Amino acid sequence: MRDLAERARVARNTCPYLTAKQAAFHLGIAANTLKRLRHQGRGPLCRMHGGSWRYHVDDLDAWSAAHRSGEGA
Fold first, then answer.
1. Is pLDDT larger for residue 43 or for residue 73?
2. Residues 6+ apart with CB under 8 A from 55
3. What is the pTM of this model?
4. Is residue 71 part of a domain?
5. Which of 34, 44, 57, 71 could form a disulfide with 63 if both were Cys (CB 3.0 to 4.6 A apart)?
6. Side by side, which strands form the sheet with 52-56?
7. Number of domain units in the chain
8. Is the pLDDT at 73 greater than 50, yes or no?
9. Mean pLDDT, to the nearest integer, of 15-43?
10. What range does the domain containing 44 cover?
11. In Å, what is the CA distance from 43 to each residue of 2, 6, 30, 34?
12. CATH number, domain containing residue 28
């Protein structure tokens, strides 16, 4: 797979759990920002799978929708 966008697309179609890098790309934020939000308890729901944090695509979309800053933003 070439890049994170392709991995996120494949994950959405095959396995709905994304890595932290894929999840950050999906949300349009930096991976370090996602990590900081997780540590602060303010990020999207995540689960530990095989020693790595994983994010369900539906949880990412729900979190993103809940944190919109306004229409057209």
1. 43
2. 17, 18, 19, 20, 22, 23, 26, 44, 45, 46, 47
3. 0.76
4. no
5. 44
6. 17-18, 52-56, 47-49
7. 1
8. no
9. 95
10. 4-66
11. 27, 23, 13, 7
12. 1.10.1660
